Amino acid sequence: MPVHTDRRILPYTAAQMFDLVVGVEQYPEFLPWCLASRIRNRQPHCFDADMVIGFKMVRERFGSHVDFERPHRIDVSPTAGPFRRMANNWRFQDRDEGGCLIDFHVDFKFRSRLLDKLMGILFYEAVRRMVSAFEARAHAVYDSA
Fold first, then answer.
1. Total domain count for the chain?
2. 62: alpha, beta or left? (left if phi > 0; alpha if psi -120 to 50)
3. Angle CA 135–24–86, to nearest 5
4. In angstroms, rounded to a whole number, what is the distance separating the alpha carbons of residues 71 and 59?
């Protein structure tokens, strides 16, 4: 079961980074392998999201529940799809000296042994690219403003 934790300091506010991560509908514009996404059942502190992820011959659709407290916390759990278990957590903390500290954690296991084995091999590269994609998106959105 792959687990990854990443901690980064970026020159943006917690609110700015929170808005990028919670903006699921924009994921296909910048997130590797995200082919489609939509938000359903939007509430003040949560929503449900559907995503389609594709890589070479593998294409998976999954649903998730996103619970959040702006601008500090985003927690994601599966509602449908290929995951037996999935936990994805983001934490954002403004720093006195500027910018913010981001803590990212993901832990998952697929229902399919084949998919679990395949993703286990690609997992660390995929997560590294995903976190870097959010960082690049922040540069593109906030440095040009």
1. 1
2. beta
3. 90
4. 32
Taking only the tens place, the pLDDT of each residue in 77-132 is 988 877 777 889 999 999 999 999 999 998 877 767 776 666 666 667 777 888 89
Residue 92, SS3 per DSSP: strand
Q: DSSP string spanning 94-123?
A: E-TTSSEEEEEEEEEEESSHHHHHHHHHHH
Q: At what angle do helices 14-22 and 113-142 cross, to 10 degrees?
A: 130
d(CA 53, CA 1): 19
CATH of the domain at 93: 3.30.530.20
Cis bond upstream, residue 82 (ω within 30)? no
Contact status, residue 102 vs residue 10, Cβ threshold 8 Å: yes
Q: Give the separation between CA 75 and CA 93, rounded to whole angstroms.
A: 15
Residue 13 sits in which domain range?
3-142
